[in-house]
Design a protein that fits this description.
It comes from Syntrophotalea carbinolica (strain DSM 2380 / NBRC 103641 / GraBd1) (Pelobacter carbinolicus). By secondary structure, the chain is of the alpha+beta class. It folds into three domains: 22-357, no CATH class; 372-567, no CATH class; 575-699. Helix content is 14%, strand content 17%. The protein contains eight helices and 28 strands. The chain has helices at residues 22-39, 48-67, 83-88, 229-233, 268-274, 337-340, 359-388, 399-403; strands at 95-97, 99-101, 133-137, 139-142, 145-148, 152-154, 239-240, 248-249, 290-295, 303-309, 322-325, 328-331, 352-357, 411-413, 425-427, 495-499, 504-509, 561-566, 575-577, 580-583, 590-594, 606-608, 624-626, 636-638, 649-657, 670-678, 690-693, 698-699. Strand 11 (322-325) and strand 12 form a beta hairpin.
Length: 701
């Protein structure tokens, strides 16, 4: 019976970016502290009504810790999911103290963690072998106080062998959502091979604690059952070395047995353990709350997080993946909490149950992720536009169109004094005797003409005749010093990779999981063996990068956002002027220059009037004609076959009288300018013949 369900399927929540606010967290911790300090010692004086009220209050606090308050909305009116789920995007795992080893176990146990027998529940997979362990938590008495054995074991649903008749997510268990109060819920005391103490780390996204760690406020609880290890061992179910139950306990865990046999309702050991509240969330009757994580039968792919109190009768009946008689199981994989929990069972009638549905927040998170992906793609597209404008089909108004090259990539570097962060700076090359440019970093030239405050040699010259830095192509990212970098919608640094060999730039957001796989480049971190994840955080920022190795379909790239910008999008540009005629030119003085780069190659983009002819104005041989008007011998020609290449973008052709002979059209010299839109589309750029009269030249700006 789903009595007291606190969260209906049609109530929706959205993520809070950083869990609870500080004020909310302090309030929750204060309330829990008061409940633990004042209410629990007085349990003996409460009637069942008050105990139920306390239980529901405790369940609501747990719900808030998991999902946050249910009355918070964002600026668009969308519910906000907070708490653990808001931060971690998943239910908190359930953890039991380490599994009890069977008396007939032969092997290496927890006393020898370096060579433990597999299947004892140790991390990182926490797998249990039913031939070696019981699926229940274990502990011992220390000065008449029960202590759980460490580490804790993460519960899972055994869908292969279905051996978890208890101790699974879908069957009776004693797991607790320890991630609500600790970032390290496993509490592993020693290393187990490569699995290092303190065990599982919930990571930087964990913003807890979301609840105060539960403590045992009544150490005498359970004393009527046992006060020593021997007394606990004498509780049912007992281990039998002989007789009908030889090599087994009185009944199999999870078995409710036929009428002629004892079963779970007679489990004295469990009754004792449920009264041990140290590290456990309890109900109003002083017993540990039950938790389950099950499938949602009404929502394919969804899950349900259960919070259950067994109520005043302190009993419950639970699905156990089958039935058992005489120690032999008939497995039924459908006999699970999701579908087979019977709320009308006489032992369950007074149970108090809260169900939380993943469908309430998964749809919100999915919509939020879609928005973030959309925002991130917009950011990447803005970067692409800052690089190449509308190229290749349209005008290259970006950095490459103005500076006719890629922007350089910068890294935040130490200036040789690690203790002094104030002298660190952005640089675009390493400190070797012959510096090498970085292939990974931030394209600071997109927003700063002085990208390296410590070296004016990296300054970008202002635009002159269409060549140079005109303006910021992107709004400068927020942050200062080493924290000023482009970010995606998840707040992570957008990564840039320059593949000089293939003429490619990869612009990469690592997506929601923050991971990417670039393939093994075999440029290794110092001291690392070949193939040791050097693709994820390359140690060499000058190594040659092959962008074609990036596979967007590979794990973990599937959730990434990326754009590849190719040099062919902006270089070469296509431009051909078949013939240029200048009337009344001056030999050796009248010149024409096509501004395609910083330099000028004579005969290609710099032409000088030499032989004067009658160009058609009928006033004698005082005209200059460049090109014969055919594609074979044009005045100017730049394409993918010419030695000199022109970058796409707004390109100036200046025809002027170079009175000082420096091959540069200076301010005050007389001339004529025309601006062409050069694109990287093959076949474009074919111009009509151009004719002008030097007598009509005007002073250049």
């Amino acid at each position: 019976m789903d009595v007291g369900t606190m969260n209906k399927p049609d109530r929706y929540h959205k993520q809070a970016q950083s869990g609870f606010t500080l004020l909310e967290m302090l309030l929750v911790l204060f309330i829990l502290g008061m409940l633990a300090a004042l209410v629990v010692p007085a349990m003996g004086r409460l009637d069942d009504h008050e105990r139920e009220r306390f239980t529901r209050q405790r369940m609501e606090l747990i719900r808030r810790a998991i999902l946050g308050p249910d009355d918070r909305f964002d600026a668009e009116g969308r519910p906000i999911v907070g708490g653990y789920v808001g931060d971690i995007r998943a239910w908190p795992d359930l953890w039991e103290a380490r599994a009890e080893i069977r008396p007939n176990f032969v092997g290496s146990g927890w006393e020898n963690p370096g060579s433990m027998t597999a299947g004892l529940g140790q991390g990182p997979d926490y797998t249990l072998d039913p031939a070696l362990v019981f699926y229940r938590p274990s502990g011992r008495f220390v000065k008449k106080k029960w202590k759980w054995y460490l580490p804790y074991r993460r519960l899972y649903d055994d869908t292969t062998a279905n051996a978890d008749h208890i101790g699974g997510l879908e069957t009776e268990n004693e797991g607790q959502p320890r991630g609500l109060w600790t970032r390290y819920p496993e509490e592993l005391p020693v290393d187990i091979g490569s699995h290092k103490a303190p065990g599982l780390d919930l990571g930087e996204d964990w913003k807890g604690p979301y609840l105060m760690p539960p403590a045992d406020d009544n150490v005498a609880d359970g004393g009527h059952w046992a006060e020593s290890d021997d007394e606990y061992g004498a509780l049912e179910p007992l281990w039998h070395n002989s007789g009908a139950h030889a090599g087994s306990e009185t009944w199999e865990e999870g078995s409710y047995g036929p009428a002629s046999e004892l079963g779970e309702h007679f489990d004295e050991k469990e009754s004792f353990r449920l009264l041990q509240s140290n590290g456990r969330l309890i109900d109003g009757w002083g017993r540990a709350l039950r938790f389950f994580i099950t499938e949602d039968p009404d929502w394919p792919g969804g899950t349900i997080f259960w919070i259950l109190s067994e109520g005043p009768d302190r009993e419950g009946t639970y699905p156990s993946k089958g039935t058992c008689a005489s120690h032999a199981w008939s497995v039924d994989a459908t006999d699970v909490m999701a579908t087979a929990y019977d709320e009308d069972d006489e032992k369950n009638l007074d149970n108090i149950v809260v169900k939380l549905y993943s469908r309430d927040w998964e749809a919100l998170f999915a919509a939020e992720q879609a928005r973030k992906k959309g925002d991130t793609r917009s950011t990447l597209e803005a970067v692409r536009k800052a690089l190449v404008g509308q190229a290749p089909d349209g005008l290259d108004s970006g950095f490459t169109g103005d500076l006719t090259r890629w922007p350089r990539l910068f890294r935040w570097e130490d200036n040789g004094t690690p203790a002094d962060a104030t002298d660190d700076y952005w640089d675009d090359e390493n400190d070797e005797a012959t510096p090498v440019a970085y292939t990974k970093g931030q394209p600071r030239g997109l927003w700063a003409s002085k990208p390296n405050g410590s070296d004016s040699g990296d300054d970008l010259d202002a635009s002159q005749w269409g060549i140079g830095w005109r303006h910021a192509y992107l709004k400068a990212p927020v942050g200062s010093d080493g924290h000023q970098f482009l970010r995606d919608a998840w707040g992570r640094e957008i990564l840039f990779f320059h593949d000089a060999t293939n003429g490619l730039w990869l612009i990469l957001s690592r997506g929601p999981d923050g991971l990417f796989d670039f393939g093994d480049t075999d440029t290794l971190p110092e001291g690392s063996p070949d193939g040791t994840d050097d693709y994820q955080e390359p140690a060499s920022f000058t190594e040659a990068v092959d962008v074609t190795n990036y596979d967007p379909t590979a794990s973990p790239n599937a959730d990434n956002c990326h754009i590849v910008v190719a040099e062919r999008d902006w270089l070469p540009g296509f431009f051909r002027l078949p013939q240029l005629t200048v009337y009344d030119a001056t030999a050796g003085i009248t010149k024409a220059r096509f501004f395609r780069s910083d330099g000028a190659a004579a005969g290609d983009d710099l032409l000088t009037a030499t032989t004067l002819v009658d160009g058609g104005d009928s006033d004698g041989n005082d005209d200059w004609v460049a090109g014969d008007g055919t594609p074979v011998n044009p005045a100017f020609n730049f394409d993918d076959t010419t030695t000199q290449k022109a970058a796409s973008g707004a390109r100036y052709l200046v025809v002027w009288n170079d009175n000082d002979g420096d091959d540069i059209p200076d301010s005050g010299e007389n001339g004529f300018t025309i601006l062409y839109n050069v694109t990287a589309v093959a076949g474009s750029g074919e111009q009509t013949d151009l004719t002008m009269d030097a007598d009509n030249f005007a002073a250049l700006p």
